[in-house]
Structures are given as structure tokens and as C-alpha cells.
Amino acid sequence: MYQLAERLFPICRSITGDGFRESLSIIREQHPDIQVFEVPSGTEVFDWTIPNEWNIRGGWIKNLQGETIIDFQNCNLHVLGYSIPIHQTVSREELLSHVYTQPEQPEWIPYVTSYYKERWGFCMSEHQKEQLIDDAYEVCIDSTLAPGHLTYGELVLPGETDEELFFSTYLCHPSMANNELSGPCLQTSLISYVKSLPRRHYTYRFVFVPETIGSITYLSRNLLTLQQRVKAGYVLSCVGDNRTYSMVATKYEDTLADRVLQNVLHFHYPEYHHYSFMKRASDERQYGSAGVGLPVCAFCRSKYHEYPEYHTSADNLSLISPEGLEGSYEVMTKVIRALEHNGYYRMTTPCEPQLGKRGLYPTISQKGTYDKARAMQHFTAYADGRNDLIGISNILQIPVDTLIPIKEQLMEHNLLTVE
Amino acid sequence: MYQLAERLFPICRSITGDGFRESLSIIREQHPDIQVFEVPSGTEVFDWTIPNEWNIRGGWIKNLQGETIIDFQNCNLHVLGYSIPIHQTVSREELLSHVYTQPEQPEWIPYVTSYYKERWGFCMSEHQKEQLIDDAYEVCIDSTLAPGHLTYGELVLPGETDEELFFSTYLCHPSMANNELSGPCLQTSLISYVKSLPRRHYTYRFVFVPETIGSITYLSRNLLTLQQRVKAGYVLSCVGDNRTYSMVATKYEDTLADRVLQNVLHFHYPEYHHYSFMKRASDERQYGSAGVGLPVCAFCRSKYHEYPEYHTSADNLSLISPEGLEGSYEVMTKVIRALEHNGYYRMTTPCEPQLGKRGLYPTISQKGTYDKARAMQHFTAYADGRNDLIGISNILQIPVDTLIPIKEQLMEHNLLTVE
Amino acid sequence: MYQLAERLFPICRSITGDGFRESLSIIREQHPDIQVFEVPSGTEVFDWTIPNEWNIRGGWIKNLQGETIIDFQNCNLHVLGYSIPIHQTVSREELLSHVYTQPEQPEWIPYVTSYYKERWGFCMSEHQKEQLIDDAYEVCIDSTLAPGHLTYGELVLPGETDEELFFSTYLCHPSMANNELSGPCLQTSLISYVKSLPRRHYTYRFVFVPETIGSITYLSRNLLTLQQRVKAGYVLSCVGDNRTYSMVATKYEDTLADRVLQNVLHFHYPEYHHYSFMKRASDERQYGSAGVGLPVCAFCRSKYHEYPEYHTSADNLSLISPEGLEGSYEVMTKVIRALEHNGYYRMTTPCEPQLGKRGLYPTISQKGTYDKARAMQHFTAYADGRNDLIGISNILQIPVDTLIPIKEQLMEHNLLTVE
């Protein structure tokens, strides 16, 4: 996963344009079955309109001696996202009114955009801004903002049913690592994992969209299908650092998506952060909005808005790590495994089964000998058709991982059915 | 409000009789549309019977030298409420068996009644009682207890629907200020407020009754109508002092009346006292009784039974104040405003609306710029038809006052409907 | 009760055999109407099969000098429960592989069984084991393990309805006092109590079964009847010591059985232990299993598994006491009384009734005079058809014992009906 992040890092992506396309085509080298969709500028998507396509080749600020002060080639965060083209000499005062910094983090270049209002601008560190002491500068932004398309990718892997698990990530930020590339890299590996499953109860749907406008566009074309089919979904974002795990719950915190992710994090990473829907900020905003209401949580390590490097040049490849990505991969594959094995289980016979005659219970009865088979005995009590596997795990306070082999032993002995 | 209290204070009211009538007619100077009802003594009202009408002209205790020791003209609490007439010379011992004091509050005259058993008696301070050292006294109570009527007042102000908000207060205590006149004075001003509303969703029903027997009488004549129409109601009592605010919840604490009053007090007076229905003592006893079950809370500042001056001569005009009454008026008008604006709101479009193009959201996206429009964004998420305005306020922890203009902006832009 | 325990103590009982029969016949001296059932070995009962019948006459270990080291006559725990017969000389090493001790309680003989796998063995204290230093010993177990029957007893006492209260205890342990005889002794007295009731709303069903296999056998023959009729039930076990009271809740802790026992213990023994179903260990395992789901709690003083003497020779007659048994009897008769008086009560008239005219409320109204009649007034408010007596008790925080006379006074005055 980390190599993919390294390869994607230098590309200047935005919510439209060739950076997005190039990034997606690199991912498609691993999964050529990802379908690519292009939606024209001007298309109305619910309350929104797809904006013009933006492409950029370069941008710089020079002093009147012709020395380059700020250069897009050094860091593509330097140009305001969606900046209109400009090439002229401007006074220091005018330039400063087009400069964005993050004064409380004076060494870092902030990431700033203006998608829906035409502006030009440069982003830089507070220290760089302080060195702009000449009276005038030559500025140049070599961008185009013109009718084109919004691009997104989608892959559907059919399962035994058309009930769906849904995964969504975004690919629309320039060179940032955790809040950009970690999500697509994890999702690319999860696709491989899902393809490797010997059987799939669920159909899996993976989308790579530009944030906000992309998920809105996708929903405008797929809303009913998603509402009918999606049983649980996750937005993958900021999943590459080595810090805590986090989840952003759905609006009412009661969906299967919440229950499974909470269960996995509770047992395996009990120090995880649980954020309410009030703390949402990525595409779970759209998936959970009024009128959409999909069961989609966000999964992160350090959540967007909550770590200092967020939306700055410090969110670079050193912030993420192979181990950080691997940890997120483990959580999400546990989630998938729990979902695949989930169901409402019911014992086939009244009373406790005689586990002893099947070698599943000690044959000698003495104080202290009961504990080992206790988990199975508890499982049989609560497998009464009223609880799904997640519910039983929560009641027994035993991880789903531990219950799955118990469930399978009982099914082999025809003591258990699933509804 | 305070002037009205001053004017009503000297009148000797009881659950029947001319004191009640005179007080109500003073209130009707402001609202002549209040209808007056007279119900004959002996009428059966559910399990109760309306008692004889009581009127009193005077009462005194004189020593045998003809000096007046205790005089009703000085304080109308001196005569036991509903005392039968008497005029005779009695021994000190017999007199004392008819004297009521509050020994732990030795300077105050207690308020005592015997509505349903015929007795005569005098109330006085413990100090006054200690001075009764003569062997005999002449006592006189110039009262009548005879068939007559129970009086109550009712005003219905129609709204756009026949769903009703219900307000009830009592007017049956002699000269006491907080636990008597504060309620009718507040209600008189609330009637003016409701009349001044440009439009009323609800029909408003205000009643002025004698406590207990009056609300029972009123219910016996209006039960079905009230059960069908009343969506929320409040008993107004002890609302004139400067101390804390209080509410007495309904039996199961789950009605609209509870939710709105709790919400208003929570955000604006978070130190308020929330009493369970087990602490009821005024007409919410009847409105919430088994077989009635109306959604009616009590609203107070210092709740009856909970402040030291309660039911004594110390509950006089100095205990209440214009500011105390004004504060209660503010709470109840906030309650009415919240109820008038309440409803189940639903966004008209899936996904978040594009607030930016309407000037409702910043057009530049940088860390720290999101907060200002966040309340509106949160509102749009929870306006999914599942929550009323009070519910959204509780979830977002934003006062209804702040949400009302947001709701109205969204409605102006046709982004929101109400169900 | 304690005398009955003394008489039953010496008998060597097991899950089948003459010890069980003899014990039951002693109980039947008091209640000859208890019916005795014999179910043949080999009968399939759900997932289980009734094992061969086991009887034992003696068992000993002698050294080669003919001296008896261990003798069943001294303590019938010495022989492994369900031990196959043996009579031979064995090496010390072989003997030790058939010896069971409880090393952390070195002075006590543990109680050990092997019902479903054929073994022979001796149980002894760790100290006794340490003295086995000879090279060889003669061992003898004079038992039979052969087709026969499983025995259980059942008594049904009809009531006015066929709704049932169910009580179950076991009679299958050798000489142990708390975890064996306390349950049957209490149940024997409860039968007398129920027979003495002037009227019974409920039909009462009492069973004396061998633990686990006995309750499974009983359920296999009565499941549908029990599921249709039983409204609440209790497993009685370990009810004879002087320590705390305990209950083991049903699976979801929401049945009438839970609510009543919890209510009684809460008000009368608030320091009681409440165990979840995860701590079950007696026949509530079967009654609460998936596919059975009866509303049956376990009632104990020191719960099985939770006291040190459990399943050892130290659980003898000195561990239980007449007072210990009597305390349990008081709890269970309170439970029965609460259940017999339970119901959904509803006032016959709207508004509060006029309690004063019936002498149920003070006729003089002054601060401080309200409290006495307050419980009745509260009862009338919550007797709205929505709460049963247990629910009202929980809301008012007044014991059911106190509410029963209130309820009866109101019914005498035709102010209350039951649904």
C-alpha cells in the first residue's frame, strides 16, 4: 500500500481534471475492472452543479529581478485549488490579498481551495509570506478552468446476494498523504482481499470519487439502488498514520455499519475514538444526509480536523507508514469477516445440547473444569433467533473472531441454523 | 403584572364566594372576553360534590374587656378557610382547640382550611397564641356557608387548527402573593401576548379555577374535548419570586409539554429544578390523574411546599416582584414561541444543499472556516422527518431560538418543508 | 425445614438410583400428592439420552495389611459419582491416577462425578492423598451401573386460572447441605404455604428433579404446556446459609419472574447480589435455553460456585441453619404474595377520588398534613392501567407489601378495578 502512496503522491489532483484521471489509472493497473465514469460540467446533481474542469501546469511568484520566490513545482499546494489563470505584475499589497497562510503553523503551507467562486491565489508558509518585502511581484498561474468532466471510478464485485457492502474513498487532494492517499491505497488492497474470498455473501461496491461533489454526483445516479441494497458502508479516509483508530458514527448510531465497526474496535483497539455524526466532515456527510440516510460510517486513524498536520504540507509521506496502513487493513478485514459471518443464529434443539458426547465439553465434573467450554455454552443460550452474531458478541463480551469457530462447530454438528 | 397583584391582594378569596368573583371581574377589565361560569352547590363532579358557597364579612377575638385581640380586618388568614359562623364566649381551653399555628415559624400566621368538614377556627402566629392568657374570650365569625355556586373563568382564543395549548391557574387563596396572585397575573399577561401574535397555529385555552374542586369541575364538563385537543398545557403557580425556576413533570415525563419546557429551561436557566410527578401539588394532580392523563406540567419559580413562606402570611407582596413575574413571562413566551414553530421538518432535496451559492456558507475552504455555518449544516442533516424542532435542538444542543431563523432561511429557499 | 435436611443428609443420592427415590419418599411423607415418575434408561430426551441407573452400597481403599484408609461409610463423597464397580489390588501410581482432590482446599473432600464417561475413582482430601505412601492398595467400589430409570417428582396445585407459577429444585447430590438439601427443604415448606392460601389465582407446579438431565427430561415431556402457562418460575438452590441473598436473572432480565424477585429483594434485602444469566449454573440453564425460554430465575443465598464450601465435604449441616432456611422462606412467600396480588389496576373515576369523605385523607388542610395519605394518592395516579403492581411499586419506591392494603381499601370503595 505504501508504494502505491509514494507513486501517487507527486500528482496534483483536484475534484476534476487530469490529476484525478492519472491517479485512478494507476490504481486501475491493479484492478482494471474498475469502471471509469465521466460526467460533463454543468450537469445538475441534486442541489449542486458540476463545475468546470480545472487543470494546472504551473504557477510561480517572481520578484522583479526575475528570481523565483514561490514555485508550484516545489509543492503543488502553493496554488489555491481551482485558481483561475493569471499572469501579471502586481503590487505587494495586492499580492498579499491573494496569499493564504496558516499563521499558527508558520512553517507549513496550508491547503486552500475555492471551487465555487472564481479567485486566484497562492498558499505559503507564514515564514515565506514574511519575506515578501518588495514593492511588486510578477505572478503567474498557468491553469485552465473550462467545461470538461468530473471523473469517478466504481467497482462492483457480485456476491451470493444483492445485499451490498459499500466502500467509498476520495482522490481529489494534491500532494497530501494521510488525508488523501491513505484512503485510496487501503481501498485498493481491500478490493484484492474481497476478490480473494472463497465465497461472498454480500455484493461489494467500491467507489473512488472526488469529495462532496463526487459523492453527490454518485448518489444522484445511484440513490435508489444504494438505499435498497446497502446494508453497511464505510468512508475510508486518514487511515495511514500510526496513531489511534477512530470512527464517525451514523446519525442515530444504530446501523449495522456502526455495530460492526464498534464491535471490532471495542475488542481489538479499546482505546479508539468514537465520534458522533456531529463530527462528520467527509463523504459520510452526504451518505448520511436527510433524504439519503445510508448506513455509512467513516473509518479513520487520526480523524480529519483532529490532527495538526491536517490540510497542510506537513501531511506528507512521512506522516503515514506501511504499519499504519496495515493496521487499518486489519481492522477493515475483520469488519468484512464479521459481516460475512453475521446472521441470526438459532439452535435446532431445545435445552442445552450435550456437548460432552461430541468432545466439546469436559466429561468429568469438578469445580474449575467448567470455564473452558463456557463460551460455547453461552453461545448456545443466546443463539435463540433474537440476536445476530454481533449482538451475541456484545452480550457475551467475546470477540466475533472467537465466536466464528464456535458457530462453525455447532453448525457441523447440525445443532445450529442461520436465518 | 405587579400592579394587578397589588390590586387583588386585599381580597379574601376562597374556592367559592364573592372574593373569587370580585377577583375574576378585576381580571376581566383587561380581558372582558373571559367567560364566567357558575356551577351550583351540590353538583356532582366525578367523585366529588361542589360544596356550599362560603362568604365572610369579618371575624374577631375579644377579651372580656371588649378589647380586640385578633381581627380578620388586619389579615384575612386569621379565620380558618370555610369556617362556620360563631358568636359566643368560650373558655380559653376551648378557644385553643380551635386555634391553628405553625410553631416552627412562630411569627407567621399559617393558612389553614377545612373545606369538606364543618369547623370553626382561627389562625394566628405562635406569638399571638402565647398571649391568650385570659380565662375566657368572646369569639365571632361572621360567615355564611350556604347553597350557592362555584365560579370559574375560561377564555378560548382560536388558532389555525383546533389543536390546543392549555393554561390553568387558580384564584382561590386569600391574601397571599406568590402562591396565589402570581399565577393569575402571569396568565393575564400571557393572554395579551397570545392575542398579539400575528398568527396562531394553536387554539389557546386559559382557565381560572379554584384549586382542586375547580379543576375537577372543569374536567367533568370538558374532559373529552381536552383529551382530544390539548397537545401541551401548563399550570401556572408561584411564578412571582426571584428565586430559581422549577417544573413539575407529567407522570411519564414524555409529553410535548415536558419536552418544550425542559428544553427552554435547559438552555436558558440550566440551574432550574426538575421535579417528578411525585412532587405535584396543584392542579396538575387532576390533569395528570388516572383517567384524565393530559400532557400538563406545572411551571413555578419556587415551587409550592418548597419555600419557607409557603401558605403563611409571609407570602405577601414583598415576596414577589415585577422582575420575578417578568422572568416567568419570558420563559412562558419562549415556550409558546417554541411550540408555535415546532413541527417535523424535512429537507426537500437529498444530500446537503449547496449553501455556498446562496451566501449561507463560506466560499473559501480552509481549516477553521467551517464553524460559522455548521449549525445550519447540522440542522439540514437532522431535518429528515424523524425529529421535531425540539428534538433537533436537543440533539444539536442548540437553543430553539437559534434554530428558528435557520429554519426560516431554509424555508425561504424552498429547501425545507414541514409535515 | 432443618429437621428434614438432617434426615435427608446421610443418604447417597445421584442423578438416578435408590438414593433419589428414598429422599423423595421422605418428602412425600409430608406431601403424598407429589407424583413420582420413572423414565427408562436409554430414553432420548432432546439432544440427550437417559444414562444407566447407578446404585452404590460401599467402597474403600485398604492397604495390603487390610487396614481401611478411605471408606464410603465415613463420607459418601469419597466415591466418584457414577463410578463403575472395581475390586482389585492396584499400584500406588495407578491408584493416584484415579484419585481426585481439591489441592487449594487441602482439608476438604471434593465432590466429583463422571456421569457420561465410564470411570472409577475416589475423592479425598489433599491430606489424605499425601498419606498414600504404600506401593500398592486394594480398592473396592461396590456399585452397579445398569439399565434402570431416572426418577422425578411433580406436584400441581390448581388455582383459579391455568396460568402457572413454577418451582424447581434438585435432589441428586450426596451428603451436601446447602447445595442440595436446602432447596428441596424450602420447596417442601413452600408447598405447605401454597396449600394454606385461602385462594390461589395461579396454578402452582413444583418439581423435584435430578439436575440437568432431570430438567431436560421434564422439559422434553412438558415443554409446550410450560411455555403456554408459566408466568414466572424459580429454581431453588443453596438457600440455607446465613449469608447474602442472590438471584440469577433470566437471559434478558425482563420477565415477571425477574421483576418480582428483584422488587422483593430490593426493598427488603437491598444488599442482595444480582447475577446475570452469564452466571447461571443450575437448572435455569435449561429453563432459559434457546428454544425453551421460560421466565425462570434462580434464587439462592450464597450462589453455587461463589462460596468456598461449594461442592466439597465442608458443605455440611453446619453450613446451613434454621434461620437461613427461614429467611429464604420469607423471601419466597413475599414473592408469591406479590404475584398473587399483581395485576394491572385502573381507577374507576377520572381525577383524584375524594379520599377525605371516606376517612382516607385528613379533612384539615395545613402544611405538613399531606404526607400520611400521600402513598394512597400516588397509587391512584399510577393506577391508570399502564402499570402492574410491581411497576407501581418500582415507580413509587414503596414496597408491594405496603401497597396491597391500599389497593384493597380502594377496591372496597369501588374506586379501583383490576384488568
Q: Tell me the β content of chain A.
A: 15-25%
- Structural class of chain A, by secondary structure, is alpha/beta
Helices of chain A, by number, come to 12
Q: Which outline of chain A best applies?
A: elongated
Helical coverage of chain A, percent range: 25-40%
Notes on the protein architecture:
- The structure is a homotrimer.
- Chain A has about 425 residues and is of the alpha/beta class.
- The first copy, chain A, is built from twelve helices and 19 strands.
- In chain A, strands 1-10-12-11-13-16-14-15 form an eight-stranded mixed beta sheet, sandwiched between helices.
- Chain A is elongated.
- The two termini of chain A are about 40 Å apart.
- The interface of A and C includes residues 354, 364 and 367 of A.
Which helices and strands appear, and what pairs or packs with what?
The structure is a homotrimer of 419-residue chains.
Chain A: H1 2-8, H2 18-30, E1 35-40, E2 44-45, E3 48-49, E4 53-63, E5 68-71, E6 86-91, H3 92-96, E7 99-100, E8 122-123, H4 126-130, E9 136-146, E10 149-157, E11 164-170, H5 177-196, E12 203-209, H6 213-229, E13 230-236, E14 246-248, H7 256-268, E15 273-275, H8 284-287, E16 296-300, H9 322-341, E17 344-347, H10 371-382, E18 384-388, H11 389-396, H12 400-412, E19 416-418
Parallel strand pairs in A: 7-8, 11-12, 11-13, 13-16, 14-15
Antiparallel strand pairs in A: 1-10, 2-3, 4-5, 4-9, 6-9, 10-12, 14-16, 17-18, 17-19
Helix pairs in contact in A: 1-5, 5-9, 7-9
